[in-house]
Structure formats: structure tokens, C-alpha cells
Recover the amino acids of this structure.
């Protein structure tokens, strides 16, 4: 079956004003000034009755997903509490948006834009079904679940700078890191992301106590990080135990819209624990065959909106590329290593 003719996981939108799209497809906007909510339907104009959104009351037989007044897009505890789909065991649902067409075999065709779509796969291109997928901006996250054969889509109004991501699955075998693709929506077209790759992680390297700071560890694929445990700030609900990395195959490196066109990506690494931050610079050293003295730039990709960090200038020595000892990265998401233009 064509991957673009499949059921997609519905998105749950949680904004700073408490807006959500629940299991039943109804979009609820919470007015924090009045404590009231207004429910409208993108499914059926007949469903247009208000609900007591603050208390999470039910409307008919459909569950309402209550959201706090503000949502941190990195708050995995809140995200884990949201159920994106009440459909069948195959991740499908019997609710279709107005602008989606149903084919003769009852499969769902791709809706019109604006927005994005893609297929979630592991690095071996095995489709991943029923995996949480997020399309996050600085203050808003669309939330959904991959459907049959890994297909997903989100309807998002432009302009938007987006971090399309998953949260990883450390209980899987092998362990799954977090997917992360930066996107920029500029018009009303539906952007086809193609295959969105979930990296497979090696076993993590244990981090010692704070008394051993700074600690230099080889975390996977030859990547060496020097960090201080005392300065690592973990996402809510997570505890730092280990660090891991894997190099992204060149053919699986996503486009980087914010990268200057004269720069060339020479390596990208996926990091765990995903979206952990450091208050002190984490120095980086990566194996490389670039000639001695070649200048390179190090960046990370924001897990909030997909933007690139400011570049850190480093250089090659014929075997390694590295940041200066007193400089480095501040977020464990993706390390992007490029050669600058002439």
C-alpha cells in the first residue's frame, strides 16, 4: 500500500492559552481570563458545544484531555499523560478531518496543507508504528502518533520554525534515540518530510559522581565529550545516569534550513540524554580525516524549535576535529559539524 494513503495519527495541540485537540478531534481553546472553554469541531459541525475544560469533564462519551494554562514542549511528564489516539490497536482511528479524502479501500489520503507529513522509520528504514511524534515550536507543540507503516501528518499554519521530533525509547531493543528534524514552513503547501529517521543508540557510558568533574568520556561512534555532571540539567522527570551517541549516516542527515548555503555538513551525531542542557560548555572531539588545520564549525539543533545554535569554531588535526578546550556545546540533541565556505 502507498505510504501516502494511510491513516495518520491525530495531533494534539497544547498552546500557552491551553488549546488542545482531543481524542475526538475537537479543538478546544481555553480562555484563562474567564475559565471557560470553547469547543469547535474540525470533524462535524454538529459537535459545537462547550465543555468544562478546566475540570476535564466528559462531553458525551468522548474523553476531554485537560491541559494546564501553560505547556513546556520539553515537559515529557505532561506529554506522556496525553493519549493521542483512541483508535484501534493498529493506531488507526475512525475520525477523519473535513479536508481528508477516503479512498475506495477505506484508506485515508493525504490532506491539503498547510502542514507537514512524513514516515517514521529506524535507521534501517523499518517503519515505526504507534510512536509519539511531536512538531514543536518555541511555545507550542503539536502532538500525535505514527500510524500504519509509520505515516504521520500535522496541519500547522505558517510561518513556523519547527522541531519535528520523537522522545526516544530506551526500553526498545536496540535502544531508540530521539528523531530530530528542523523545518521551516513559509506557505500553505503540505511539506513532505520523507523518511524521518530514529537513530539506534549504543549502550550508554556511565557518568561518575560530581567529584570527578570534569569528566571525559567516549560516548559512541568515536565521539568524545568533556562535561561536568554538576552542570547538567535534565528534562523534567529524568535522572542523569549515562551518555550515549551515534553518528548519523550521511544519507540520513536531514536538510538544515538555517545553515548557510556555503557550509558543508561533514558529520552529525545523535545524543542521549536527549534535550539535556549544561550550564558550562561541553567540549567535543570527533574522529575525522580532514587535513590538519582545516577549520570546522560545531553547532547543536534546538529541541524546541529546530533552530541552530551559534557556531563554535574548531579545527582538524588530521585525526580529530575538536572545539577549543574552554568552549563547547550546551545542549545534548544533535551535534552538527560543518566546514565553512571559502
Amino acid at each position: 500500500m502507498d505510504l501516502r494513503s494511510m491513516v495518520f495519527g491525530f495531533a494534539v495541540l497544547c498552546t500557552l492559552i491551553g488549546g488542545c485537540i482531543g481524542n475526538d478531534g475537537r479543538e478546544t481553546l481555553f480562555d484563562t481570563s474567564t475559565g471557560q472553554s470553547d469547543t469547535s469541531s474540525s470533524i462535524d459541525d454538529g459537535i459545537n458545544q462547550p465543555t468544562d475544560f478546566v475540570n476535564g469533564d466528559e462531553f458525551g462519551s468522548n474523553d476531554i484531555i485537560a491541559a494546564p494554562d501553560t505547556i513546556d514542549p520539553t515537559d515529557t511528564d505532561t506529554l506522556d499523560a496525553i493519549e493521542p489516539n483512541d483508535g484501534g490497536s493498529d493506531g488507526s482511528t475512525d475520525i477523519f478531518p473535513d479536508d481528508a479524502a477516503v479512498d475506495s479501500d477505506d484508506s485515508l489520503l493525504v490532506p491539503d496543507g498547510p502542514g507537514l507529513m512524513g514516515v517514521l522509520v529506524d535507521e534501517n528504514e523499518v517503519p515505526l508504528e504507534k510512536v509519539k511524534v511531536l512538531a514543536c515550536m518555541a511555545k507550542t507543540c503539536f502532538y500525535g502518533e505514527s500510524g500504519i507503516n509509520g505515516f504521520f501528518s500535522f496541519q500547522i499554519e505558517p510561518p513556523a520554525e519547527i522541531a519535528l521530533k520523537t522522545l526516544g525509547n530506551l526500553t526498545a531493543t536496540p535502544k531508540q534515540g530521539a528523531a530530530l528534524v528542523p523545518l521551516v514552513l513559509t506557505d500553505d503547501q503540505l511539506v513532505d518530510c520523507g523518511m524521518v529517521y530514529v537513530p539506534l543508540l549504543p549502550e550508554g557510558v556511565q557518568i561518575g559522581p560530581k567529584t570527578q568533574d570534569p569528566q571525559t568520556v567516549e560516548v559512541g561512534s568515536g565521539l568524545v565529550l568533556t562535561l561536568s555532571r554538576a552542570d547538567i540539567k535534565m528534562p523534567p522527570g529524568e535522572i542523569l545516569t549515562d551518555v550515549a551517541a551515534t553518528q548519523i549516516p550521511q544519507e540520513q542527515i536531514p536538510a538544515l534550513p538555517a545553515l548557510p548555503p556555503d557550509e558543508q555538513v561533514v558529520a552529525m551525531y545523535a545524543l542521549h540524554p536527549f534535550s539535556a542542557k549544561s550550564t558550562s560548555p561541553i567540549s567535543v572531539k570527533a574522529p575525522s580525516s580532514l587535513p590538519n588545520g582545516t577549520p570546522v564549525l560545531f553547532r547543536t539543533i534546538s529541541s524546541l524549535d529546530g533552530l541552530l545554535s551559534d557556531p563554535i569554531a574548531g579545527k582538524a588535526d588530521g585525526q580529530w576535529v575538536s572545539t577549543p578546550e574552554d568552549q563547547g556545546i550546551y545542549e545534548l540533541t544533535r551535534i552538527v559539524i560543518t566546514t565553512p565556505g571559502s
